[in-house]
Amino acid sequence: MIATPKYANEKKRLDTLKSYNILDTPPELEYDNLTQIASEICETPISLINFVDETRVWSKSKFGLETTEAFRDNTFCTHVIDHKDGLFIIPDSREDVRFKNNPYVVGNPNIIFYASFPLSNKEGISIGNLCVIDTIPRALTEKQVSSLKALTNQAMNLLEYHKNKKIKRELEERNIELERFAYIAAHDLKAPLNNIHSMSCLLSDLYLNKLDEDGVTILNHIKNSSNKLKELIDGVLEYSKNFSALKTTKTHINLLHLKKELSEFFSFDKSVSLSLKSNLKSIHINKSALDQILLNLIENAIKYNNKNLVKITIGISEENKKYQFYVQDNGPGIAPNQQDKIFDIFKTLANKDKYGQTGNGIGLATVKKLIEQMGGEISIKSTEGKGTTFIFNINKD
Q: Band of the pLDDT at 351, cuts 50, 70, 90?
């Protein structure tokens, strides 16, 4: 008997296997149907769907055999996952130097004939196999080989389906978590923010004529910012209770006024240059949601920028039934292998921003959620060292 060496990239293979959460799960009719059909088509007494773990081979489905797992080094399956040429077939194991002294050949279940296709994902990483076994020498017809391959593909499709279903369920749970957090946070912030706004108005009434130009500018900035935040919080509370409000509660937004509001919100930071490019004069959209999207994207562009002058450009256009937006910055950019992670809730790529603060990974997750609730989608284009552009669209109707 000749044992196969470890898989070429065994760690990645094992990580891939674990990502399906299939090991040691109860029998399922979907998989049992496949092994039964495989045995009937190939006219063999035994058929298995196996997964190759670190030291064992575990059978998710077994037709004609009771054993659930076996020591990995003694199995045929270990050879299959390293086989790159499709069908792995042994007409008579007693005549094959790799298997003639194998304990499963000379002893129970007396494997003489063996044929199998590996279970491989789209990257070509093999995590197991579907095999048919007989206790006498055999061969398969072309139709049997074709059917066995189709059943193996179906087994892999089942794995992917259940994995994606689990991911979807986890995302839904995270979204519920995010919505709950948004409502609680907004509700708790509303009272102190009302106090700040009221106090700034009171100070303005009492001392406006006694302040110099800088003092007036600062006081007006506090008033305008607190008022803007009040509007945002009211918006959060509204769509936390009723997401349909994102689609039904719309206003006409003058883009010159929008540019002025955004510029005033970040006017305290003289290192920020904000511009808005559009051939449109106004858009009809949920203003609270758009404000939150743009403020989050702009704030991120500022916080994680490494340039002395932070340049941010907002672009707005319309195409068919959607408004098209982009927010472009001149920051450090995002590495390609990190770009698919930035919208995950509670996921942060940098330990701290340029102010030394640690992020919470909520902002971009909120942005993505809002855009999707309004019938749109968001993507990213980024080149390390040259900046990042967030591109998104929102339904007009």
A: low
